[in-house]
Automatic annotation (TrEMBL):
A molecular function (GO) term: ATP binding
SMART domains found in the cross-reference section: AAA
Keyword Transport tagged: yes
Family, as annotated: Belongs to the ABC transporter superfamily.
TM stretches of this protein: none
Record keywords, A-Z: ATP-binding, Nucleotide-binding, Transport
Record bears the keyword Transport: yes
Domain ABC transporter: 16-241
Stored InterPro entries: AAA+_ATPase, ABC_transporter-like_ATP-bd, ABC_transporter-like_CS, ABC_transporter_ATP-bind, P-loop_NTPase
Protein name according to UniProt: ABC transporter ATP-binding protein
Protein species of origin: Arsenicitalea aurantiaca
């Protein structure tokens, strides 16, 4: 378990580390001090109650908010603002309604020669199974398809770290499950490590190799759990439900302490 303000043991293979991270908005402390690192996991899940500081953490890593105190590093290099090797997928896909799927995915690649840009975009669309919809407009897509376009847009630049902020929260339950399964299919050796922010404990358990449980504000780590279950995971199986009960017990216990 990682205690607030305490730096966990650093692994030689770590990809990302945060040390004594603090974020305040005037007199209100939203996060920290918070320290953690990860490296070999494909998917690190971050769960916690609404308003605890999960999205604030993601925005700090993405460079969308300035750190009040502390440090972050990616591959040993300081993270002090937005970086091309860190990509974000938000709850809404935020597509340009007048642009085709292909143009939406290639928005950040206009500096490349046309042939190289098209090759990269086509590869990203194939990865999310949307190559046949490359010329479609966003209004012609379902909610799940639009979110896959957002994922392709994040992947096309081949970032080292992919940040997902409640990426399936706006979808209906069936589409949400399908999108979780689809994400499992594309996460692998050629896909960057993923940090997933979600309030959905089952979603975190389906997707994550490790889960950090936050409580707050200010956001603090109250549990750090390795999820050593084979994927795809049996959602109603005893080991899966045991992990779910462990996380729920942690959250209710943290809420009782804060009361």
């Amino acid at each position: 378990m990682s205690l607030p303000g305490r730096t966990p043991c650093i692994r030689e293979s770590e990809l990302f580390s945060a040390k004594s991270l603090v974020k305040s908005f005037d007199a209100f402390r939203a996060l920290g001090p918070l320290s953690f690192s990860f490296g070999t996991e494909h998917v690190l899940g971050v769960v916690g109650p609404s308003g605890c500081g999960k999205s604030t953490l993601l925005r700090l890593i993405a460079g969308l908010e300035a750190i009040t105190w502390g440090t972050m590093e990616l591959d040993g290099d300081p993270v002090t603002g937005a970086r091309s090797d860190i990509a974000v997928v938000f709850q809404e896909p935020r597509l340009l309604p007048w642009a085709s799927v292909r143009d939406n995915v290639g928005l950040g690649l206009w500096h490349l020669p046309r042939a190289q840009r098209q090759e990269a975009v086509d590869a990203a669309l194939r990865r999310v199974n949307l190559f046949d919809f490359a010329d479609a407009l966003p209004k012609q897509l379902s909610g799940g398809m639009a979110q896959r376009v957002g994922i392709a847009r994040a992947l096309v630049a081949k970032p080292r770290l992919l940040l997902l902020d409640e990426p399936f929260a706006a979808l209906d339950p069936l589409t949400r499950v399908k999108m979780q399964d689809h994400l499992l299919d594309i996460v692998g050796d050629e896909v960057p490590n993923v940090l997933l922010i979600t309030h959905d404990i089952e979603e975190a358990l389906v997707l994550s190799d490790r889960i950090i449980v936050l409580d707050g504000p200010p956001a603090r780590i109250v549990r750090d759990i390795a999820i050593d279950l084979p994927k795809p995971r049996h959602r109603t199986g005893a080991p899966f439900q045991a992990h779910k009960a462990e996380i729920l017990e942690t959250l209710f216990g943290a809420a009782d302490l804060a009361a």
